[in-house]
Amino acid sequence: MKFFVDTADVDEIRELADTGLLDGVTTNPSLIMKSGRDITEVTKEICSIVDGPVSAEVTATDFDGMMKEAKVLAKIADNICIKLPLTMDGIKACKHLTSAGHKTNVTLCFSATQALLAAKAGATYVSPFIGRLDDMGIDGMELIEEMRLIFDNYEFETQILAASIRSVNHVKDSALAGADVATIPPATLKALVKHPLTDKGLEAFLADWAKTGQTIG
Ligand code: E4P
């Protein structure tokens, strides 16, 4: 499973890229707003930190506007992935951009039929929003399971990018359901490594080691 980080905070991205575990980054207009920075400037910096795809989202809602913005975003760096909303105009723009050789991420996916449209349009990634479905009392994981089955049935190459991840269990369940990628907020990504028994076990080993009076090397 590939890990993307879901943030526009360059300090967090740098820290996570340093672990060697980061395969890409996703941003959205809300995350850009949170960063307090200019979209072109911050996206360029993110693209220089990671080699993998960096999703940058269009804000136009009509096809022509999306294509115009996509051209501007694509010029920022070679590893830009154009993020488009799951609307008919977004699907149409996805088809055009994919055919022109761009990487695309169709976002705000909440149903299997929406995902099917994105795959038919040749999207590189489609992003089911797990947390937002769970918030409404709908099992987000079921959507990933349905998408996996549909994509496998027709051998679609579109990758399932589990998004709106809120917990370590979301990451685990997405992996079990066969998502290709999870885009994870920095705090949740860092929490994946944590287990109280690891801390407790390490503490006990170090206490016993101190009693030996030895050092390694
Ligand atoms: C995905 O690309 C989105 O940026 C993100 O996962 C949305 O998550 P949220 O529902 O926590 O805002």
Describe this structure in words.
The structure is a single chain. With 217 residues, the chain is of the alpha/beta class. It has a single domain (2-212), classed as TIM Barrel, CATH 3.20.20. It is built from eleven helices and eight strands. Strands 1-2-3-4-5-6-7-8 form an eight-stranded parallel β-barrel, surrounded by six helices. Strand 5, helix 6 (112-120) and strand 6 (125-128) form a beta-alpha-beta unit. Helix 4 (63-74) packs across helix 5 (88-99). The structure holds erythose-4-phosphate. Erythose-4-phosphate is lined by residues 6, 26, 28, 107, 127, 129, 131-132, 163-164, 183.
Structural class: alpha/beta
Bound molecules: erythose-4-phosphate
Specify the CATH class: Alpha Beta
Succession of helices and strands:
EHEHHEHEHEHEHHEHEHH
Enter the CATH topology name.
TIM Barrel
CA-based shape: globular
**Uncertain spans:** none
Task: Please render the helix and strand layout as text.
Layout: E1 2-6, H1 10-17, E2 24-26, H2 29-35, H3 39-49, E3 54-57, H4 63-74, E4 80-85, H5 88-99, E5 103-109, H6 112-120, E6 125-128, H7 130-135, H8 140-153, E7 159-162, H9 168-176, E8 181-184, H10 186-191, H11 196-212
Parallel strand pairs: 1-2, 1-8, 2-3, 3-4, 4-5, 5-6, 6-7, 7-8
Helix pairs in contact: 1-3, 4-5, 6-8
Bound molecules: erythose-4-phosphate.
Short description:
The chain has 217 residues and is an alpha/beta fold. Helices cover 51% and strands 17% of the residues. The chain has helices at residues 10-17, 29-35, 39-49, 63-74, 88-99, 112-120, 130-135, 140-153, 168-176, 186-191, 196-212, and strands at 2-6, 24-26, 54-57, 80-85, 103-109, 125-128, 159-162, 181-184.
